[in-house]
What we know:
The complex is a heterodimer of chains A (526) and B (306).
Chain A: E1 3-14, E2 17-28, E3 32-36, H1 43-50, E4 58-63, E5 73-74, H2 80-85, E6 88-90, H3 103-110, H4 119-122, H5 127-146, H6 151-154, H7 164-176, E7 182-186, H8 194-209, E8 213-217, H9 221-227, E9 230-235, E10 238-243, H10 245-250, H11 252-259, H12 264-268, E11 294-303, E12 306-316, E13 321-325, H13 332-339, E14 347-352, E15 355-356, H14 362-367, E16 370-373, H15 385-392, H16 399-412, H17 414-417, H18 429-442, E17 447-451, H19 459-474, E18 478-483, H20 486-492, E19 495-500, E20 503-509, H21 510-515, H22 517-524
Parallel strand pairs in A: 3-8, 3-9, 6-7, 7-8, 13-18, 13-19, 16-17, 17-18
Antiparallel strand pairs in A: 1-2, 1-4, 4-5, 9-10, 11-12, 11-14, 14-15, 19-20
Helix pairs in contact in A: 3-5, 3-7, 5-7, 15-18, 18-19
Chain B: H1 2-9, H2 11-17, H3 19-40, H4 48-65, H5 70-92, H6 97-116, E1 128-129, H7 139-156, H8 160-170, H9 172-177, H10 182-206, E2 210-211, H11 218-231, H12 237-252, H13 260-274, H14 291-305
Antiparallel strand pairs in B: 1-2
Helix pairs in contact in B: 1-2, 3-7, 3-10, 3-11, 3-12, 4-5, 4-6, 4-10, 5-10, 8-10, 11-12
Amino acid sequence: MSALLQLTNVNRSFGGVHAVDDVSLEIEQGTIFGLIGPNGAGKTTLVNLVTGYIRPQSGSIQLVAGEGRAGAVELARRPPYAVAGMGIARTFQTLRLYRNLTAIENVLAGMHLRRRDDTLQQLIPIAPFLKEDRRRWQRARELLGRVGLDPDTFGNRQAATLSYGDQRRLEVARALALNPHLLILDEPAAGMNPAEKDRVRALIQQLNQDGLTVLLIDHDMRLVMGVCRHIAVLNFGRKIADGPPATVSQDPAVITAYLGSQAQKTAVHVPGSEEMDVAATSTAVSAEPTSPLLDVRDLQVSYGAIQAVRGVSFGVAKGEIVALIGANGAGKSTILNSLSGVLRPHSGTARFGDLDLTAAPPDQIVRQGLVQVPEGREILARLTVRENLELGAWARRNGRSAHRDIEGLMEQFPILGQRRDLPAGQLSGGEQQILAIARGLLAQPKLLLLDEPSLGLAPQMVDTVFDVIKKIHNDGVTILLVEQNALRALEIADRAYVVETGRILLSGTGAALRRNPEVQKAYLGG
Amino acid sequence: MDFFIKLFTDPVGFYNQHELLIAQIGINAILAISIFVTFYSGQLTLANAGFMAIGAYTTVIMSLYLPTPLPLNILVGVVLAGAIGFLVGLPVLRLRGVFLAIATIGFVEALRLGVILNVPITGEGQGLTNPSADPLGGIVPILISVPILTYLVWRLTHTRLGQAWAAIREDELAASSNGINVPAYKMIAFVISALVAGYAGALETHINFFVDPTEYSVTRTIQILTFAVVGGTTNVIGPIVGALFLTALPEIVRQFAAYRDVVNGVILILVIIFRPQGIVGRGGLAIIAPRWWTRWRTRERAAAAH
Lengths: 526, 306
């Protein structure tokens, strides 16, 4: 086996931060290479260095073989489109689809370098000139099929209307249109449930069997360990380990740096294998509440022609933690957004105390004490931690009490107190999530809606965030939690509802649902 | 109303009566195509009036001083507009969004105030008399050009070039990861836009006896921009419909005479509020009610129920 891509002593810093610090790597032809590390370890920076989006300050990045050349090519100072021309395709951590184009158009744009420039011929649409056009169309459909998107169903849909998992797949199809030698996948399974992750894993293995070299970056240890033949670990921009999965996972430096001591269990556990204990703090309430704080009846919400929520009824009593769990695209976030007034349901009722949530304006909903912490955190990156919190208290009339509460929160969450004057954008993902929750608390919620608080976080940070949620609950805030990390959510929830394709499939106490084999089947894809 | 009655009952009479208006619609449609090309590639450029001026002045100056035939004069004007487009594009296309818009406006003003008003050969702001003007004959090339250019640009959006433009418009970073040379394709769009605008300028002088420098100011550019915004930019038909609608509108609302601009403005505002995707655009003929409108309606209904 010969090397395909070789990085030698690559350096890149931003300001005083060494994002990538003297990293050397060798990716062999035909392998699946895993690149892991905690948030902010420099993984994405490394990908951007290889693909030409960022220039290294020193070091070399060489493509050893490829594209009909024998000699090595230096990639380090080439622009991204030229790197793509060398046969290196990538996906992006944050989806970057051509959102207003259809799925097929997305893939056709990906074929840019792999088609003759027949622009002038195409101006005259006579049959022989269009034959190639049809062939390309056919090829685009094949690529969609290859990543598991049925071209008849999805081909002509606008990329933005696809579900999150399908958008991820479409991005892979677009990258494949380049006929790459090396495919770089930047967190392809982020925010997916285990069943979807298994599909991603099967896809990666299939592509690799077809002869493609893959560089995989992901948080999910189960995915990375299961699929990669070689793994490199980054921490604070440095490479701390490099080797086959079995060696790397035993490396003590890796375990402390990445997994944390207690989180290892969570990261590599197999669903259903752990002890099913009822969280001691939860008061088990199995029945639907008789006089709920939040009462939702037969809620239906649509985006244009697509019905996302198809008649959902549930309730949340004062003092509970209630979780909505289910796969991506099940309609969980849509339910929350229609409760907080961001979206309007087209039928059904939702009452919060005396307030009709289907008609009340969002500002009034917040003032009555129903506060949402949105998915993706939505913090203001350029403002400091403190300024973000001040904005959270903006709706309040009483400036002095707001000030006192902000100070209180800084004490309660030292992670924020220590960083009060840092721009929020410099916080790690988990710290940003805690900031977002703290900002929600400043609106003095009676009911806090949390949308995917663990999304995209390293396992260690997930623990911290869930601890924060428990703490808030103990302080008397009722919580409605939406999570795709079902087991974690069920651990802390008094009751939970399993949502699938816009309907409630199952409900029960958190502990009961964890034991329910149907949950594992419906949700975990077991 | 008379306008439409005449259009349907007496098309020939209508044509004779409104020939200048029809020619102007044609010119504006070509300008709409010009701005559509840059819009389609995701660039907010407002240099069209400047390239028009280059096409117009070159053609007229050549007619004044050289014995060359008119089609050649027009061709030279168009090519010169494209060449200057290329030179202007080199520095300017590094900018994005509103900064690009401001820089291109700067170009239009620098050309008009700096060059046209100061150089003797352009009449130093007094304008030029066009010796080869032919208002009646001039309409023929315009009416032929509009469908041909529309067709070519419509096809172009379906080619490799057009798909690269769409990709750049949607996401430049992703486009470059697909191997699309973003700066080069932006330049192609900018130059094509300049060529088309230069052509519109050259044709327009042909139906006027006089080249007036005030025609080529930022006001003109903004007018062209409104064609695209009102018509919609999802396909080439949008800006053309916008040009047709906005050019004919003052004529249609003629009976309001004194309030013509007011009516014009109100219609523009209504289109932008209730049809933000433009007259032509995705979503068929759907009228999109803005959120405050529905909220206000809900509140009204709630009040009525009480």
